[in-house]
Amino acid sequence: MADTATVHLVRHGEVHNPQKVLYGRIPGYGLSELGKQMAQGIADYFGDRAERGRPVHLLAASPLQRAQETIAPLAQRLGLPVLTENRVLEAENAFEGLSNVKRHLRTPKYWPLLVNPFRPSWGEPYKQQVERVLQAVKDLSDRALAEHGDGAEVVVVSHQLPIWVTRLWAEQRPLWHDPRQRECTLTSVTSLHIGPAGVESVSYSEPNKELSKQALALPGA
């Protein structure tokens, strides 16, 4: 039987963003106090699993501050280094840096950005996001399998949109979607189960479900 691995794509915790800016890839946006609690919750979730015989073998995170801060407590608990993985970075977005994006959409100069929501025309194509995340998933799972064998597990902290479109691809659903319908809450875990054919199934969990209910609905996450 061929070896299998699991790559857990974790969305980062809540960000301190009182101005409600669509922060995207802008540096300097770290976790709020609630976000730090969420990060500790993720450390407890995977740390407890490890103590029950389901260890994590490899850690990686987007280079953005909110992702690095989310994975830090887990790295400390497990005593593992964190690989910085640029391929799971937040998606590019032409509205980055704006607050109250809905108001700006009424301005004619932004209308050309809205011509093709299926691509989407205002940012990095969904297909391109999936391709780069899958490349990272393959490389990380291959490394974990080579070093630790069958059943190896990897935790990767990333961002909502790249995680969600990757899940849509894995479940053979259209990549275009209503952002309000994304099932990818703060510090949720989207697990890609890897087999000989690549991603063979997906599972989803919310270790911090109660904390997520307290979070603000902020843009740019």
Describe the structure.
The protein has 221 residues and is of the alpha/beta class. The protein has a single domain (5-212), classed as Rossmann fold. It has 6 helices and 6 strands; from the N terminus they run βαβαβααβαββα. Strands 3-2-4-1-5-6 form a 6-stranded mixed sheet, sandwiched between helices. The radius of gyration is 17 Å and the shape is globular. It starts with a strand and ends in a 9-residue tail after the last helix. The mean pLDDT is 92.
Summarize the structure.
By secondary structure, this protein is an alpha/beta fold. It has six helices and six strands; from the N terminus they run E-H-E-H-E-H-H-E-H-E-E-H. One of its GO terms (molecular function) is phosphatase activity.
User: What's the number of helices?
Assistant: 6
Number of domains: 1
**What is the molecular shape?**
globular
Main sheet? Answer: 6 strands, mixed
Instruction: Calculate the terminal CA-CA distance, rounded to whole Å.
Output: 39 Å
Low-confidence stretches: none
Helix/strand order: EHEHEHHEHEEH
CATH topology: Rossmann fold
**Could you name the CATH homologous superfamily?**
Phosphoglycerate mutase-like
Annotated CATH architecture:
3-Layer(aba) Sandwich
Number of strands: 6
Rg, Å, rounded:
17 Å
Q: Helicity, in percent?
A: 25-40%
